[in-house]
UniProtKB/TrEMBL annotation:
PANTHER family: SOLUTE CARRIER FAMILY 35. Keywords: Membrane, Transmembrane, Transmembrane helix. This is (Mediterranean fruit fly) hypothetical protein. The keyword Transferase does not apply. Residues 19-214 form the Sugar phosphate transporter domain. The chain crosses the membrane at residues 51-71, 77-94, 103-121, 141-159, 171-195. It is a multi-pass membrane protein. It comes from the Eukaryota. GO terms for cellular component: membrane.
C-alpha cells in the first residue's frame, strides 16, 4: 500500500498473498516456519540458553540427510565423518547436561525436532524462492501473513487465549511498543535468513546459525553465571570444530566442481 502511494520512495514487489496458487505453493514453507518457531520456543522453555546450542547442534546432520532424501544429492565420506563427530559432541553434551539439575529430556527432544525442521525449512526456502521470482521481500511477506494465521490454532490448543485476555498490561504503551519492536526484529531476521539462503545455500545458513549459537552459549554462561564441567565445554568444541571441518570439506568440494565446470566450458 505504501509502495503504491509513494512509488518514488518505497518499492515493493507486486503480489497477492490470498491468491490460491500462491497460497498452495508457499503454505508448506509457512507450516515449517511455524513449527520451527514453536519448537525453538519450547526448547528454550525447558532448557537453559547455554544448552540450547548443544540441543540444536544436529541441524547440519539433518541437512545432509534431507539433501539426500529430498534433493537426491549425495554427500562425500569426509563430510559424513564430520557429521559423526557432530553427533558424538551432541551425545557427550547431553550426557554432561543430564547430571545437572537443569537437564530436561523434553527440552532436548524439542531441540532435536527444531534442528530437523530448521534444516527442512532452509531447503524449502530455496525451493520457494522460485515461485516468487527470487523476490526475498515478497517471500518474507507471504510467509509472515500465512504464519500469523497458522499460529492461531496453536494458541487455542495450548490454552493461551485466557493468558492473553487476563494479562493486565495487554494495552500498556510499553508492552505494545515491545511487541512492535519484537515484530520488526523478527521480520528483519526472517528477511536476512531468506536473503542468505538465496545468495548462498541452505547449508551456509545452517553453518552460520551454528556459529551464532556457539557465541550465544559463551555469552549465556557468563550472563547467568553458569558453571559447566570440562567435558561439557569439550562437547561444545567438538561440535564447533566438526562443523568448521564440514564447512571446509564442502568448500573444497565446491571449488573442485567449479574448476571442473570451467575446464569443461573451455574444452
Amino acid at each position: 500500500m505504501l509502495g503504491r502511494r509513494y512509488p518514488n520512495v518505497i518499492t515493493f514487489p507486486a503480489g497477492n498473498p490470498f491468491d490460491i496458487d500462491t497460497f498452495r505453493k508457499i503454505l508448506p514453507l509457512s507450516i515449517l516456519f511455524t513449527l520451527m518457531v514453536g519448537t525453538n520456543n519450547l526448547c528454550l522453555k525447558y532448557v537453559g540458553v547455554a544448552f540450547y546450542y548443544i540441543g540444536r547442534s544436529l541441524t547440519i546432520v539433518f541437512n545432509v540427510v534431507l539433501t539426500y532424501t529430498l534433493l537426491r544429492q549425495k554427500t562425500s565420506y569426509k563430510a559424513i565423518i564430520c557429521c559423526v563427530f557432530v553427533v558424538f559432541g551432541f551425545l557427550l553434551g547431553v550426557d554432561q547436561e543430564s547430571i545437572t539439575a537443569q537437564f530436561s529430556l523434553r527440552g532436548t527432544i524439542y531441540g532435536v525436532m527444531g534442528s530437523l525442521i530448521l534444516a527442512w525449512y532452509s531447503i524449502q526456502t530455496k525451493k520457494s524462492l522460485v515461485h516468487v521470482q527470487q523476490e526475498v521481500l515478497l517471500l518474507s511477506f507471504y510467509n509472515n501473513v500465512y504464519s500469523s494465521f497458522l499460529f492461531l490454532p496453536l494458541i487455542l490448543m495450548n490454552g493461551e487465549v485466557s493468558a492473553i485476555i487476563n494479562y493486565e498490561h495487554i494495552f500498556a504503551p510499553w508492552f505494545i511498543g515491545a511487541m512492535v519492536v519484537g515484530g520488526l526484529c523478527g521480520f528483519a531476521i526472517g528477511f536476512v535468513t531468506v536473503l542468505e539462503i538465496k545468495v548462498t545455500s541452505p547449508l551456509t545458513h545452517n553453518i552460520s546459525g551454528t556459529a551464532k549459537a556457539c557465541a550465544q552459549t559463551v555469552i549465556a554462561t557468563q550472563w547467568y553465571n553458569d558453571t559447566k564441567s570440562g567435558l561439557w565445554w569439550t562437547s561444545n568444541f567438538i561440535i564447533l570444530l566438526a562443523s568448521a571441518a564440514y564447512t571446509r570439506v564442502k568448500q573444497l568440494e565446491m571449488q573442485r566442481q567449479h574448476e571442473r565446470g570451467s575446464t569443461t566450458q573451455k574444452a
